[in-house]
Protein 1
Amino acid sequence: MNEGRQRIASLLSTNPFFSGLVQDTLDRIAAICKPHHLAAREVLFLKGDTSDGLYAIRRGLIRIGTTDDLGQQMTMNILGGGDIFGEIALLDGRSRTADAVAMEDTDMFFLPRHDFLGLLKSDPSIALQLLELLCARLRDLIERMEETTFLSAETRLARRILMLVTDYGAEVHASQEELASLAGVTRETVNRHLQNWKRDGILSLGRGRLMIHDLEDLKRLARIGAI
Amino acid sequence: MNEGRQRIASLLSTNPFFSGLVQDTLDRIAAICKPHHLAAREVLFLKGDTSDGLYAIRRGLIRIGTTDDLGQQMTMNILGGGDIFGEIALLDGRSRTADAVAMEDTDMFFLPRHDFLGLLKSDPSIALQLLELLCARLRDLIERMEETTFLSAETRLARRILMLVTDYGAEVHASQEELASLAGVTRETVNRHLQNWKRDGILSLGRGRLMIHDLEDLKRLARIGAI
DNA sequence: CGGGTTCTGTGCGCTGGATCACATAGGCTG
DNA sequence: CAGCCTATGTGATCCAGCGCACAGAACCCG
């Protein structure tokens, strides 16, 4: 099992979250973490569930979001390789704040709650790393709050697409429905704006996919620098 | 100076954030913290400033919020005695995420950045306490995000007022402008809803002040339980 | 007590986006 | 390849909330 652990430790160190930790800490985390796989569309957990632990994505895409009583969706984030999630409910012991659903086949590492909390108490460097992570999450959410109160649907949509382009490249794999839930508008509104932008040559459209041609124009639409 | 420190330590222990810490840690924090006073309407820091440290409110009210390029306001939170703020920029070393302005005469303790970070590294229990705080902030922001995407202006306004009532009592001291920036709507919209609610006997209105008569009706308006 | 200043109350027109209702078109599956 | 399911495209209509304009009303300060 020792080779396994070493392999896991070196895999972990490719993850930005764990790479800030010293070798010894990494080894101890490797000792408790378990591989976990999700098929596309598989539900990992739902808002309100009790926490089983922390997840680190190796490969794939996870949608973090919620659904209201009428079925309307809000996507908080789309996470990919190298991202961590599930830390809030893990740390405060309360229920999950959102659903986590695989958007495609996804491989993760899973750190069981009990083991990880034990490690956290014995190794302060993990706590510091988590503080960084939570601060980044807070900054992101605050920025999103500002976007929704200050900016139009069009600008918000442009910003969300820009985020996807930045993270995953100029070819964005997302349905208009998904874009809508990211920007907090309806699918129809998304379609109308995308049609305008296509007419202006900024992007081209496919089923479940869009391709950015003119990144500068998209940035202009996103009003980078505003607020 | 020893009496001073002991007095500060015991004052700190009345604050929920510090009360979770052991006496020794409390004493060390007391040794580094300095009293700080703000007059009503005084600006403590602005979004974008570099962090000088962490603040703990003893008495008074601090508005945490931002203003966009056109002067429109967004209030993220109204904090009072026992609340902590300024932790994000402190912890990640980046700039302030929002403005902090005194709404009335306010007394605080100030923990200078450098000293506090030193303490944080040497005493893991502070890190755990901060993790709790950041999780609470995240949960609050996530809930607010859901509110803005799923709920109407009326419901959001009712929820924000309900929060003020819960924290500060049935007589709410806030102008309609301030309520507007809390709910993310215009002042006119706030007024129109308040007039309706007044007509229905749910509350009464004064200049910069409103008084809740029927808390149950307000809760119904806030659709508690929805989402 | 008088004049400014900041709040509140309210009418009215405008509009961004939601909602509804289909038509069409890809892509998967038996 | 036929059928089905899911995603896209688009018109028509509606309406909550915004923006503007202005009239009190309350407070504050000299």
Protein 2
Amino acid sequence: MNIKEIAALCDVSTTTISRVINNDPRVTQKTRSHVKSIMKKYNYTPNAFARGLILNSMRMIGILCTNIDDPYYAKATSLIESEIKKHGYNSILGCTGNNLEDKIKHLDLLLKNRVDAIILIGSAFRENTENDHIRTAAKQSPVIIINGLIEIPGVYCVLCDEKESIIQNVRLLTEQNKRNIMYVYDVLTYSGLQKLSGYRIGLELCGIKKEISVSVKIGADINEIRNTVADALKLFPETDAIMASEDFLAIGAQKAMAELGKNLPLIGFDNSRYAQCATPSLTSVDNMLDSICPIAVKLLIDLLNGKKVPSKIIMPTELIERETFVTKKSSTV
Amino acid sequence: MNIKEIAALCDVSTTTISRVINNDPRVTQKTRSHVKSIMKKYNYTPNAFARGLILNSMRMIGILCTNIDDPYYAKATSLIESEIKKHGYNSILGCTGNNLEDKIKHLDLLLKNRVDAIILIGSAFRENTENDHIRTAAKQSPVIIINGLIEIPGVYCVLCDEKESIIQNVRLLTEQNKRNIMYVYDVLTYSGLQKLSGYRIGLELCGIKKEISVSVKIGADINEIRNTVADALKLFPETDAIMASEDFLAIGAQKAMAELGKNLPLIGFDNSRYAQCATPSLTSVDNMLDSICPIAVKLLIDLLNGKKVPSKIIMPTELIERETFVTKKSSTV
DNA sequence: TTGAAAGCGGTACCAT
DNA sequence: ATGGTACCGCTTTCAA
């Protein structure tokens, strides 16, 4: 069933049908309702490809993340998808993995499919070498980066200040007289580097010389993480607090401590559901996806509507206190 | 840049360009490479909408789940997306929520976008009343259901035997002389009903009369779950084992037990990463997504290639033993 | 208010 | 091996 057949059935031209489809006012109420009833009767749906061909858009937005099976990306994707939908766009999803070639391939795929815009989730899309693929993509389609930062024209970033939040964590720990703070991390994406740098700066600002950083194998399971951290704890028995770059790592650290009969203050990152599931429950930095994602989508929609928008928006983070570490703000002894 | 311009630049017809694009052998090697070089030089990409219009396909597969921010759906989506990609298809993602109207709207959206097939993840897509929307969708496009079962022509289901796995769990618990088994659940989708029914059948088969089932508010956070289960444990202090319909609920139950100083055998469901994160780590039923998803995609691709495929594939589950419950298979005292 | 017809950018049939 | 051209289903300009 196509527009011509519907036109014939209604005894009007295809133009009129098109006008009805697109809510063009230049159709009498009578004709309009008649056409609508026929369309309903025959369950007619305009061909999206044909519309796409002319309008040069199928109202699709490409979302790329490295791995949707990571709760952080899942949450972001979930929030973005729901926002996008509100504005009448659909989401095409790609999970790229961490391989640069695959990221490029996915980007190309989205461009080939002529998406209206591209949203990259996470700083994994900023390579530490060059970012030509993103530069190229941005020339053809707006690119939004969630919690990542690349300064390229046509690329818009909405992120939280991860470095600063880690600096604050160090400060909070030192306020409780912790001077041997272990930092557990794995992947050194831009974000990973920011956090690591926050750790180092934090130590420096607090006058601490000794860094105890533990690098965990990327993609390690909980037992591998536990073992790695346990080894580190044996190596640095003076450790009196632990921070991790992600909740999952923090939980591995938690298990390591349990194994060694330790119970040090512990701060995770992402405030994921893992943090709630942990026993004791995990104090964690909330990276504000709940605010960032809607803001990013709003920015994108404004952009698509031709408005002027900022190229960079940075939010502060928030420490969610649970059982593994509490600040004593009101230290009324 | 379109096919005509490229044709002009190459001094050949659009037909030839098209042939090169589609790897049609009827082009000399010389022409082909020349065309290819020009295409590369001008960074030409055939318009996907135009191709879609003619071929009536953009090689897109629609994936629907209720909530990608649930690790179960996230894992399934991740596995499906990666399999689909291998076969040269892209994924368009929709998160519908649990509202029937929204599910219908999403289904319509996918059909409007003329996806090549639709994959529904989870039994939440089977309504307990009627399923006309799925019936209608299946008439226009193949529908695959992951871990859900609806017997409708054009709908293909790949699932695991959840009911049976719960029956087995009851049996394993009774073998350890547990007779007061609490069952914690929330949403009663088809899957939820299957599991609940497995619990009841299991009890019956083991000659247990007393059912202790606890219904938790849908969407409850970990504290609400803990409170609900704690109340139930106070009401039924004779409880000597707990099963849950999902890992997250099991963890809530775990926290309730901790609160009350209890330490009963506990079995979760889904074998999600939550199970690893729990302390003590959670014994859980693996619902075999790792096998189901590739099988489902394979079935789909076969279907799209016109092969005959089964309408229903059922896999057995597997109990992953961790700390909260271990079977004593080799009970050599 | 309505309609005829020219595209949008490809593909595929039928010639050559 | 290559090309001319009708056509996919819709939108939009221009004319009536």
Protein 3
Amino acid sequence: MDNRAVEAVLNEIAALLELKGANTFKVRAYQNAARAVGNLQEDVGELVESGEIKSVRGIGKSIQEKLKELHETEELVYLEELRSGVPEGLFEIMTVPGMGPKKTKVVWEELSVTTLVDLETACKEDQVAGLKGFGKKSQAKILDGIEHLELTRGRRLRSQALPQAARLKALLEGVAGVERVEVAGSLRRGRETVKDVDLLVASLEPEAVMEAARDDPEVDSIIGSGATKTSVRLKDGLQVDVRVVEPRSFACALAYFTGSKDFNVALRGMALDQGYSLNEYDLRPLDGSPPPEFATEEELHKALGLAQYVPPELRENTGEIAAAIKGELPTLIEPTDLQGILHVHTKWSDGTGTVDEMVRGAVELGYDYLGISDHSEIAGYANGLSVDRLHRQREEIEAAREAYPQIRIFHGCEVDILGDGQLDLTDECLEWLDFVIASVHMELRQERSKMTKRLVRAMSHPQVRVFGHPLGRKLLKRDSSAFDWEPVLDACVENSIAVEVNGSPHRLDADWVHVRRIRARGVKLCVNPDAHAQATLIDAARYGVCEARRGWASKEDVVNTLDLAAFEKDFLRIG
DNA sequence: GCCGTTTTCGGCCCGACTGTTTTCAGTCG
């Protein structure tokens, strides 16, 4: 257990003690001990073994024994005892401004509030104001605080952060002396959600950059600003870190600030093995000789002994380094590899664009084929289509086919997978359609084995071509459904069904972890936009491809990189 | 629970602020 983990354990004990109303000085003792461990230069485990831990100020006899138990067993009976009966959600409640341990205890005991959502509901129902020690003002302040929490502390979607990153990049590129600006961090790696935006600037005049970052009209508050680093909070709550390095350090700095942390640690280890020390400025020989200079990350990776450059999307230390050394990284799919897209909604169900508008949008994006797939009838909330309405929609699609001969329009449907795995359309209608995407929109929380059976049954239907948004998650809002992937993927193999990589920035589903699993099983992917408006047709290329890349997908893994003839004949089995 | 002795128990950082309560408890930095 490393120092940080031990520090976290001690802090958790302190928080639990506070909640249980323990002596405040006892609480403080644990907080002090946590900080002492956090500040240690040495490994806490080694100090425990050597007995030197007792000379660390803030760690007395009792905490010494707990550290020993932690070190030897990786567990702590005392912590487990404290945890029992204390809902985890209380810790989150304590992050609300104004809600300390005492007040949290009151709402927990008096109103059975155990989560942030509970607390919000209780405030809205005017239950909190009547509690002892609370009033109208504190109730309003708590509601305000919860809203503030969601705005500033939470992660946000990639699609929300990217526009700000692009705006700031352009702003900083206009500053005198700036040679180059790049977005780094998790945004560059293509993560679905991000905590902040990292911008790296190459310049010999850092003060001008710092000033520009602070003076950005979108800045709400300045968190910190020094000679080469400024952190600000924007009006929309997003945190932005701007870091300036000299141009000659840019490649190393870009690698360093792109991460991930685990990837960097692994690279630094490789550097050490070869007699170098790698940091954000350079790759420095340990013998004191002058460091080599790199113009690009590609040169840096090569110097470290990687046969291939590792694209940012793969830098998670999940096998990419070993593969790059052996030259076994796949050539990742590019946005321009997509020849067409499926999964597009129109005004017929819950889209905002007409068939004509969506087709025109796809033509403008240069696609050779487009699949229109509105919801099936049971999706009443989305104005799903009955068999009758599907037939009437066909007339409009025929008209579009005549109007836009440059693109092939397939008429399909996103058919609901019912609770028992049956599809929400007659077999006759399913056969009549050009293609079928089968998705779950209801009963998402089914028990695992039931969900597995349901999906296997759906993927055994011969008319299904695509398994739509398999996880059923909504980023930052709803967790994935639970099911066993192997039998479901087996059914997909059996019927040559592709699993969707849904490019909606709210979904990104299947996610990169499962994309690797799907590919390993020999199942193809279909990268779709799930567009509900003309403007989001590009989401397949803009977000979906990125997610597929993170899952190591190449062009060959994705069915809609096929040209029209192959896609129609081999995948859709038309004609 | 830690520390430091006045060596075995008493002090531990504390003031500003807020809102509730009417003299102060709880939070925060």
Protein 4
Amino acid sequence: MSDQTQDVHANQNDAVSLNDATLHYLDVIYRLTATGTEVANTTEIAENVGVSASGASVMLRRLAERGWVQLTRYKGATLTPMGKRVALRTVRRHRLLELFLHEVMKFEWHEVDTHAHALETSITEAFEDRMDELLNHPIRCPHGHLIPAKDGSLPIVKDVRLVDQCVGTAGILRLVDTDNSDWLKYLGDQGLKPGVNLKLKEVAPYGGPITIETQQHTHNLGRSLAELMFVEVVA
Amino acid sequence: MSDQTQDVHANQNDAVSLNDATLHYLDVIYRLTATGTEVANTTEIAENVGVSASGASVMLRRLAERGWVQLTRYKGATLTPMGKRVALRTVRRHRLLELFLHEVMKFEWHEVDTHAHALETSITEAFEDRMDELLNHPIRCPHGHLIPAKDGSLPIVKDVRLVDQCVGTAGILRLVDTDNSDWLKYLGDQGLKPGVNLKLKEVAPYGGPITIETQQHTHNLGRSLAELMFVEVVA
DNA sequence: GGTATAGTTTGACTGCGATCAACAATTTAT
DNA sequence: ATAAATTGTTGATCGCAGTCAAACTATACC
């Protein structure tokens, strides 16, 4: 309780009044650790934030000192529960923004990530809430990623990896798990966006292409693209 | 052409890639000098930016070194033509955002300034353009301020100060020149927003109140509020 | 098990935008 | 015209987030 206690306390509760850099790092670490991988390593983080590895290293120490991340030297970083709350708030804003940009501002689904990124740390809470209302409390962004609630909770869904299904499975495309603009544009142009009904027709062995069928077309997709797709199986 | 030439050149053309602080100062100086007053003085600027006078003084020197402002020591600052271009771009974004927040996001007219301020330095150019399209290339923000074009030009209008008109003059309210949320709320609640038809009924002498008449009501306004209002006179 | 290599951290330093305290210039009042 | 009050600038210093070069693990290979 010496002299620089003030903003630590302010921050504890509202995930909002943190600076851009902090929010950006926490967001990156969240995304890197959300997918199975237990810890995010320095180089990965540095690349995703867009700074040198040494820069990231320094910043990670700061974030650890402030209680946002759990750091094991020479190993990697994870978010503390507090850090995760903050990150989820940024993720919420990002995904709400993506949907807003798509639905209201009529941007293409492969463009929204960039613009959402520019805005995610600047919008006011009222703006966040207003988007949520306007969009009717949505659950997913245009790519199908889940939108966390303000308390950090995530909706429960039945997404499964398309490439893990057996041939003949039918389902609804729910998520295309990438923010790579080119891939999104390609898939979008083929009509492969969340909501579309599809059936798995063929899976070539040894990482080969897969064949899927929609109402209109049959598509042949390379494995790396196919691996981005998650579906809800329908009986 | 030594070693730190890069961003000076980048900035010269696109008013966009400047940091928040610079944009904020230029915006403030623009607003302070737009209304007749030839130069903006340090204290005024400091107050409007929200920093100490000494902080503003230092920053002003930096802005002068970089060619955005014309500085006369102990006198005050004005924008250079280059600085004015940049400022007008921020003003454009701010006012487009205000209208967007009002029309699309359904914020009240007294709320939009705050939220627009949070966003004005972060939006992408595409977002700016999209707002402009969506709103049909508007000319005024919700309070009636003019929206500069991307080249910095301002539409030509016939706004005149209400308090300078003689009793009996009828006109359309075009501009309420303040961003004070309380005053705006008060006037808005009375229906005194741009677009409304009104007639000047009485002007009390010695800075006393004025009386105006609209379709529905007769309003008595203190001089300071009345002075915010600009009208287009109709014959 | 010792060494090359990839990944990580440290140290010295930079730029930016602030602060406060002290000082200087300008303006106003007597 | 000088003193007092106001306004503006400077100097020292801070915190933040970055850089590069050098030093330091951790691990994988032979």
